[in-house]
Every structure is written in C-alpha cells, then in structure tokens.
Design brief:
Two copies of one chain form a homodimer. By secondary structure, chain A is an alpha/beta fold. Helix content of chain A is 31%, strand content 21%. Chain A has eight helices and ten strands. In chain A, helix 2 links the parallel strand 2 and strand 3.
C-alpha cells in the first residue's frame, strides 16, 4: 500500500485558524514535512507545533526563501525523493503549508514532482488574503467586482500595468518591494484607500495606512489591500 | 456592555473545513444569524448544524438569492435592525458566512450597515476558490503569476475584456451564466485547460472538463478555474 501525500493548509499563523480536517490528517500522519529557512524555525511547523507528537518523523525542507526568487530546484528534488521514499514504504506524509497549498504555496513545487505519480490530496487553508482582509476589516470583493492578487516581486512596469487594469487588488510578497508597490499605487491615485497589513492573525499583527509604513521594516509576509474604486466611493 | 458582531467564515461546505476559531466563537455566541433562501434551508447553517444548541437564538435572513442580482436592500435593513437589537442588549451575534465573510460574502451587506457603529470582528474562512482548486488538484497561482477572480454575472463584453487581461483566473457565480463564460473562454482559446468544479468539498462534488458540462445543470455555487498560460505549458 502506497502512502498518501497530503498538502495541508495550516492558515496564516494563528493556531486557531487551522481547520478541523487539517488537524485530523496531521494527527494521523506518521511523517510531517515543512518548508523552513536555511537556518532557524519553520513558520508552518510553528503554527501546529503543539500537535506534533515526538514519535513523528519530521522532514525540514530548507530553502533560501527570501533571497533568491527561484530557490534552488535541487532542494525540492531532494525533498521529493525523501517524501517519495516514505510514500513507497506505505507512510502518509503531511506537508504543512502556510496559508493554502495552491495559493502561492511552495507545496506546488513538491506537487509538480510527485502529484502525477503518487496519491496526493489537498486540504485547503485560510489564505493570507482573507486573513489580511479580516485584520483590516476591509471587504475584499463583492457583487460584480473583480479581485486581482499579484506579487510585488513583479517588475515595476508589469505591476503598473496589472494594477491599472485591476478593480479590487491585493499586492503580496512585499518585503523590500514595498516602496515600489507604494510608488505604483501613488501614481495610479490608488494609494489613499489602500491598507497595509503585516503578520495577519498573529500577536504582532499591524494594520496601517500606506503613508505610515517604513519601507525598511516591511516583512516578506505583508500585503497591501486596494479597494475597488466603487468600494471607495461608498 | 454592547455585544460583538462576528462575521464567521464557515468554509465551502464540508463541516471539517471549519476553523477551530470559528467553532469556538460559534459555541459561545447566544445568537446566530445566517442567510437563507426565501423558502428552505440555509446552506451556511447546515455546515455547522451539529454545533447549534437548541438554546441559541436564530435569525434567518431570507433573501431572494439567485433570482435577483441585487436582493432587496430592505431585507438587509431589517436583519441589521434585529441584530443591532441583540448587540444593544449585550448579546454577541455570530453571523455564519459560507466561505469567507469578505470574499463575495453577503455578510458585507450587514457589515456596511453595522460595522462602523458596532464592535465587529471577522473570522476568515476557507473560500470556494481554494476549495475548488483542492478538488480539481489544480495549483491556482505560483511564483510571479497574477490571479483574478471574477463573477460570471458580468456582461459578456466585460467578461471577455477581463479574462483577456488575466493570467490565472477563477470565474465564480456560474449558474445560468455558465454558457456565456464557456463561450468567452473558447473565443480566448483558454477553454481547453480550464476546469469546472461544483459543490467543492461536499459529497456531491464534481470536477469536469468544460466540454463535459451541461449548461442546464450548473448550480450557482460552481466555478471555472483557468490556469495561467505558463502553467499550461509546463
């Protein structure tokens, strides 16, 4: 019997924003895997740390997350081989995913390597998108409005073009790209109604107007929510 | 002491896709409110029905959901008044929201009426967006790709324009608008890689290629996921 690979969404950070299903799968899985920085703790593992019995096998997938845009593929290759070994031995593997596995998740890297050849199931998680909207008390999108999510890592011209076309928008992956994103929103006259959120759902959560943000202090896991023009008018 | 209005995301339908936090708030709230059709059962209430003790006060907000695009505002006015009465009496009110309260949620109607004048907190929920991607085993969006969510209720020309600009996309609120959405995707040569999902996370869940779908049988709560062109190439 081959084991199943589970892509487990564990939400934005608050341990209470994990679903009942993710907890059930996690408790039953003999092996857990998670992304982690080259040195230091895994954010995803930290969310469910109290659920991890000592007997579980743990696989830390250590990738250079913030510095390289496209972390070394060999790290994912090696992790996929290790996970495949457990699956072949009949052990289920729960891969913990901050937020949702398929919404800008590094799980996609593993899924691309194992999804076609191994039993794989996905448990959706609370995304940073809705967690930030909840924190900001800002309705994301309603009625016939469209919502566009886009990463601030895009080149400035692409960011400008995409945001110009967008109604409601969410700009993700800020970090050192914050100043660029704010500049683009100012040029489009959409900075005023926009809201900055960092560490949504955690004790360190902050919600600020764009003008209040110090670009030097913006973490990677921060977001700008841009209301649709029609929302602003109301 | 004024009560707090909670916008509680209860996810896409599977009772296990509710968060630990939503369950805690729900169990503690003396009053629950929920959207319901003019006649018949509330989908959101059904998700957490096993958690509803008989002693709870229940408010059914009965709106003509599928027939009218903009359901009578007076229904929301009346519901807001009833909820405000409980809040003034010091009772917390948990408003159950299918999916997420701020992602195309009817909760926004109540939030617009009470959010500025009453203590209001939001608990994000699993959206239909990530639940459909999990069901379809289709990575929604990764790396530097943008994702656009848009409702199929838009006029055909607007749908065409928005989808032409979009990379990865999700077309929501299908129902009788399915044929229009499929026609637009065919004209844009993006129908082939797209996936149709209905009743994601429920026992009645179905995942189909667009060509297999009978437009006469498409429910309102169904979605088309359109991978980005770069995803298709892989």
């Amino acid at each position: 019997m081959t084991g199943t690979l589970w892509g487990l969404g564990v939400g934005p950070g608050d341990p209470e924003l994990v679903t009942v299903k993710a907890l059930r799968i996690l408790r039953a899985a003999p092996v857990v895997a998670f992304l982690a920085p080259e040195e230091g703790r895994s954010f995803a593992r930290g969310i469910v740390a109290s659920e991890l019995a000592p007997a579980k096998i743990e696989i830390a997938i250590r990738v250079p997350m913030e510095r390289a845009r496209h972390p070394a593929q060999s790290v994912y290759d090696e992790a996929a081989r290790e996970i495949a070994g457990h699956l072949a031995a009949g052990r289920d593997v729960a891969l913990l995913c901050q937020g949702d596995p398929f919404f800008y998740g590094s799980f996609i890297q593993i899924f691309e390597r194992l999804g076609a050849s191994h039993p794989t199931r996905i448990v959706p998680g609370i995304t940073s998108l809705t967690a930030c909207a909840a924190a900001a008390r800002l309705p994301l999108v309603s009625r016939e409005t469209t919502l566009t999510a886009l990463p601030a890592t895009l080149p400035e011209a692409a960011l400008m073009r995409r945001l110009k076309q967008a109604e409601a928008a969410a700009v993700l992956k800020l970090g050192r790209n914050f100043a660029k994103a704010r500049r683009v929103l100012e040029r489009l006259h959409r900075a005023e109604g926009a809201i900055y959120v960092e560490h949504a759902s955690l004790g360190s959560e902050r919600v600020l107007a764009l003008a209040e943000v110090d670009p030097a202090e913006v973490p990677y896991f921060a977001m700008i929510l841009v209301p649709a023009a029609e929302e602003k008018r109301r």
